[in-house]
């Protein structure tokens, strides 16, 4: 009996204590009419047999390709210490730290995580994570709606189309207006964004770098939002945030991010990490777990979950969100990553990725008929216009073991020839050479 | 214990990636760059190792302590599942790879895991189809209620309310509100949903009834068949909060009984670790009439056996997750189900229920058990008698920490005074439970002889009882404040 410790004798003794004849008799409250019509599952398998099956499935995925896929999710190096520490059972198998005295390790780690991401994004405070960058963005919008009691959300189209779709899904049943401001040729259209903010606007939502990889300064936009009484929401890329002008410096009220790049594997889409930070003024609107520092009766420093009166288990229908379990272990991985890399290490990782991307952009733009989508500054990712359909180019390259990027035609009308190309510090110049040669050979 | 920031030494370096060939300033205008580096800790790798290891010693987990936390299913998490989920073929897979037209064959293994897991969950619950997108139980609730909203919208129904019994998890009403519904509470009678109360509340505006069965008292709902009939008679849908599936595996399938939507907490029933609050995964199963509304994408198998992601569902509610849910967590559940198989999963429930009833019987003469009948995988006790002696449920909980046990859930459900809610789970041995019960009996007896000792518990943890009021008032949320 896998993972069940009872001997047959113990089972009988315990049944006797309970006062029933058999294990089946424990279920006498479920009437016969409610018993399963079938339960046709395969028989159990040994650990070795399941392992063989899963290894076979893992091999059926092709992960040895050279890939320039990004789109907000990046293949950064994960320091070995991250796996080592996050697999310690005291963190891995713990529950939400409701009994604070027995969970000071988790609580202090979360407090330090909050500190680290607040400093990275230059914001006042952070929660202990939500599901992913997209749900963090939705929750940020809801913070703005509650704080302003307004219902219009202005969204830059150069924001990730995946997040825009999530936002549309989540707001379907709510009385909210999503006003999308068209991108200006692969960059944020600053004039149109400024013009879109009116007295009914709850939030203005932008991304830095944009989905196209371009980097902007939204200071003026956020000042305009403030003047109109709206909340500024910025979603950013935490690795690059070690070198870029920060959400805090630009005057964002809420800054969110997908934390996958900080020590989490790509893992086919999850689990990822929603990083969520804000100014002190708006913190009571922030959903999810937040840890605060306090003292015990002897004056010793300790940590507790705080501001819980906002949460579902207390406020039920009036809670700031329905979030219960979150991504605490993912936040823990990001925390260890930030600690072990430190400011210098993280900046190096970011600068190396940016340098590689600029090399790749130069190599591709030198090919006949190829140009960059925009001439705006960019970080570790950029969009190039090819003289032919990008999907076809990707298909041909993929069959030779190289994925040159992500074709944008499926997400943006008129962009069938546009390819989004990402680099990280793991990308080599040699790989970039192959990329340029292979794409060049197909044009 | 100092924070890592207090241990920071300017100039000390941890892990250093390779240096870039050129600095960012060579590629980006100065005014887009950050003027000063973020004040992250400057520590060595060993500093991090020692600091975090010290933190770990200040924590309880299932690996270190018994965790009979009712409503939370804190069972042993076999390390084998961690092993399979960390195989390179899964962790290195970029999610966008599956969306490349010509590269779908690069992800066949992952798609097969998803496809098979959906099939297995359908068979386990009796539902017609599953989505793996929801990233947690409460996220599954939101997905399910949004499918319900889409169903009613599609039928032209104007329904504005969702009924949540008072024994429901707090996430249920919060979810209904987040999905745009008004929440109607109904009171339990004798620990059960009262069909008359339900009938009175069930008008034509009700879109759904959200219920947990066995409920949060650990009891099977006796009026389930009537509840299903009453709800469906009003064209309302019935939602099953599957957080308690550990009690009924192989004994009841929610689809067979008439539920329209169910979410499962893979991290509870299917043994993936809680990670101090996540990540989890909350797949949602629906009855046939709700399948058009499930989130996209959906995994589809072609006649030749190839799998692909299909986005062509015009009535779909859309994207609940950026990609395909918490795939890494799904993998662990998949491996767990394969390990257990039909007999194994049935045994999970049999022993979860046996353990809960065994503990209940051993405790019944020492503490009040408000509904002292056969329970399912958990049961509720009440420290009302001890409270008269000055010892609250919270004091009992804290004293248990001193004994090396995690406390049961306290003050939930809200409908039982001085509530203590126990869930031992099937992986705990009789010896562990006996030790826990003996310790608990000793603590309960101290209520009559030395209440002050319990009121000041815990005594052996790294810190004593913490001032939560001060934490909320002062709001020290980072090391800078």
UniProtKB/TrEMBL annotation, chain A:
InterPro entries named in the record: GcvPA, GDC-P_N, PyrdxlP-dep_Trfase, PyrdxlP-dep_Trfase_major, PyrdxlP-dep_Trfase_small
One GO biological process term: glycine decarboxylation via glycine cleavage system
Known partners and oligomeric status: The glycine cleavage system is composed of four proteins: P, T, L and H. In this organism, the P 'protein' is a heterodimer of two subunits.
Keywords: Oxidoreductase
Enzyme class: oxidoreductase
SUPFAM superfamilies named in the record: PLP-dependent transferases
EC number(s) per entry: 1.4.4.2
Name of the gene encoding the protein in the UniProt record: gcvPA
Residue ranges occupied by any Glycine cleavage system P-protein N-terminal domain in the UniProt entry: 3-437
Transmembrane segments: none
Top-level taxon: Bacteria
Task performed by this protein: The glycine cleavage system catalyzes the degradation of glycine. The P protein binds the alpha-amino group of glycine through its pyridoxal phosphate cofactor; CO(2) is released and the remaining methylamine moiety is then transferred to the lipoamide cofactor of the H protein.
Membership in a protein family: Belongs to the GcvP family. N-terminal subunit subfamily.
Molecular function terms from GO: glycine dehydrogenase (decarboxylating) activity
Recorded catalytic activity of this chain's protein: N(6)-[(R)-lipoyl]-L-lysyl-[glycine-cleavage complex H protein] + glycine + H(+) = N(6)-[(R)-S(8)-aminomethyldihydrolipoyl]-L-lysyl-[glycine-cleavage complex H protein] + CO2
Protein's UniProt name: Probable glycine dehydrogenase (decarboxylating) subunit 1
From TrEMBL, chain B:
Cofactor (UniProt): pyridoxal 5'-phosphate
Taxonomic superkingdom: Bacteria
EC main group: oxidoreductase
GO CC annotations, alphabetized: cytosol; glycine cleavage complex
Keywords: Oxidoreductase, Pyridoxal phosphate
Biological processes per GO annotation: glycine decarboxylation via glycine cleavage system
NCBIfam families in the cross-refs: PRK04366.1
Catalytic activity entry: N(6)-[(R)-lipoyl]-L-lysyl-[glycine-cleavage complex H protein] + glycine + H(+) = N(6)-[(R)-S(8)-aminomethyldihydrolipoyl]-L-lysyl-[glycine-cleavage complex H protein] + CO2
Domain Glycine dehydrogenase C-terminal: 349-443
Protein name: glycine dehydrogenase (aminomethyl-transferring)
GO function term, MF aspect, one: glycine binding
EC number of the protein: 1.4.4.2
């Amino acid at each position: 009996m896998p993972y069940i410790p009872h001997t047959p004798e113990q089972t009988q003794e315990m049944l006797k204590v309970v006062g029933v004849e058999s294990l089946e008799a424990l279920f006498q409250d479920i009437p016969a009419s409610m018993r399963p019509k079938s339960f046709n599952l395969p028989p159990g398998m040994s650990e070795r047999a399941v392992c063989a099956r899963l290894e076979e499935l893992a091999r059926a995925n092709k992960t040895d390709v050279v890939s320039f896929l990004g789109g907000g999710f990046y293949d950064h190096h994960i320091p070995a210490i991250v796996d080592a520490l996050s697999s310690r059972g005291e963190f891995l198998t713990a529950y939400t730290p409701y009994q604070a005295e027995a969970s000071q390790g988790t609580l202090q780690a979360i407090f330090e995580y909050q500190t680290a991401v607040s400093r990275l994004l230059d914001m006042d405070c952070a929660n202990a994570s939500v599901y992913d960058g997209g749900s963090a963005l939705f929750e940020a919008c809801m913070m703005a709606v509650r704080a302003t009691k307004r219902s219009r959300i202005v969204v830059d189209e150069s924001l990730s189309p995946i997040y825009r779709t999530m936002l549309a899904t989540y707001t379907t049943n709510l009385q909210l207006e999503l006003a999308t401001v068209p991108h200006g040729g692969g960059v944020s259209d600053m004039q149109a964004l400024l013009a879109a903010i009116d007295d009914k606007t709850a939030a203005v939502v932008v991304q830095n770098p944009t989905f196209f990889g371009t980097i902007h300064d939204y200071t003026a936009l956020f000042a305009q939002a403030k003047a109109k009484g709206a909340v500024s929401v910025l979603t950013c890329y935490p690795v690059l945030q070690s070198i870029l002008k920060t959400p805090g410096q630009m005057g964002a009220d809420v800054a969110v991010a997908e934390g996958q790049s900080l020590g989490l594997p790509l893992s086919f889409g999850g689990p990822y990490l929603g990083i969520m930070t804000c100014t002190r003024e708006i913190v009571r609107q922030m959903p999810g777990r937040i840890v605060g520092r306090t003292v015990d009766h002897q004056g010793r420093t300790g940590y507790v979950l705080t501001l819980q009166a906002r949460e579902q288990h207390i406020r039920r229908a009036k809670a700031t969100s329905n979030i219960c379990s979150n991504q605490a272990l993912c936040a823990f991985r990001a925390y260890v990553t930030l600690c072990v890399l430190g400011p210098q290490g993280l900046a190096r990782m970011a600068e190396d990725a940016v340098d590689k991307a600029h090399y790749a952009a130069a190599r591709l733009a030198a090919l006949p008929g190829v140009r960059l989508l925009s001439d705006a500054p960019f970080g570790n990712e950029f969009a190039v216009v090819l003289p032919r359909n990008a999907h076809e180019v990707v298909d041909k390259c993929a069959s030779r073991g190289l994925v040159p990027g992500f074709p944008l035609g499926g997400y943006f009308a008129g962009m069938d020839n546009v390819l989004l190309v990402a680099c990280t510090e793991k990308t080599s110049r040699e790989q970039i050479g192959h990329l340029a040669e292979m794409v060049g050979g197909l044009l | 214990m100092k924070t890592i920031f207090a241990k920071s030494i300017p100039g000390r370096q941890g892990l250093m990636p390779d240096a870039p060939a050129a600095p960012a300033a060579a590629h980006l205008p100065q005014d887009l760059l950050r003027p000063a580096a973020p004040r992250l800790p400057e520590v060595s790798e060993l500093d991090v190792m020692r600091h975090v290891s010290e933190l770990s010693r200040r924590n309880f987990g299932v690996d270190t302590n018994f965790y009979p936390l009712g409503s939370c299913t804190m069972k042993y998490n076999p390390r084998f599942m961690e092993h399979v989920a960390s195989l390179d073929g899964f962790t290195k897979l970029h999610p966008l790879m599956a969306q490349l037209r010509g590269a779908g064959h690069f992800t066949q293994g992952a798609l097969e895991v998803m496809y098979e897991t959906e099939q297995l969950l359908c068979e386990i619950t009796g539902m017609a189809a599953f989505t793996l997108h929801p990233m947690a139980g409460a996220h599954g609730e939101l997905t399910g209620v949004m499918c319900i909203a889409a169903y009613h919208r599609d039928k032209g129904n104007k329904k504005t309310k969702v009924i949540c019994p008072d024994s429901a998890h707090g996430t249920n009403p919060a979810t209904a509100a987040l999905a745009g519904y008004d929440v109607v509470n109904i009171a339990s009678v004798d620990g059960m949903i009262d069909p008359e109360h339900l009938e009175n509340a069930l008008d034509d505006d009700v879109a759904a009834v959200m219920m947990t069965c066995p409920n949060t008292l650990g009891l099977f709902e006796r009026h389930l068949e009537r509840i299903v009939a009453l709800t469906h008679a009003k064209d309302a849908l019935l939602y099953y909060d599957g957080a308690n599936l550990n009690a009924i595996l192989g004994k009841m399938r929610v689809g067979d009984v008439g539920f329209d939507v169910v979410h499962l907490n893979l991290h509870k029933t299917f043994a993936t670790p809680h990670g101090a609050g996540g990540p989890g995964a909350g797949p949602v199963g629906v009855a046939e009439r709700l399948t058009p509304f499930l989130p996209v994408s959906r995994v589809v198998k072609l006649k030749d056996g190839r799998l692909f992601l299909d986005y062509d569902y015009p009535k779909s509610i859309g994207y609940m997750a950026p990609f395909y849910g918490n795939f890494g967590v799904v993998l662990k559940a998949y491996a767990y189900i394969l390990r257990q198989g039909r007999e194994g999963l049935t045994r999970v429930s049999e022993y979860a229920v046996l353990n809960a009833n065994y503990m209940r019987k051993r405790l019944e003469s020492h503490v009040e058990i408000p509904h002292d009948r056969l329970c399912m995988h958990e049961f509720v006790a009440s420290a009302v008698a001890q409270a008269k002696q000055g010892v609250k449920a919270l004091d009992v909980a804290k004293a248990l920490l001193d004994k090396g046990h995690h406390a049961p859930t306290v003050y939930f459900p809200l409908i039982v005074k001085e509530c203590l809610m126990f869930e031992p789970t099937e992986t705990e041995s009789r010896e562990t439970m006996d030790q826990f019960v003996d310790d608990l009996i000793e603590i309960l007896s101290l209520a009559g002889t030395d209440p002050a000792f319990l009121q000041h518990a815990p005594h052996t943890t790294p810190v004593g009882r913490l001032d939560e009021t001060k934490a909320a008032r002062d709001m020290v949320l980072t090391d800078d404040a």
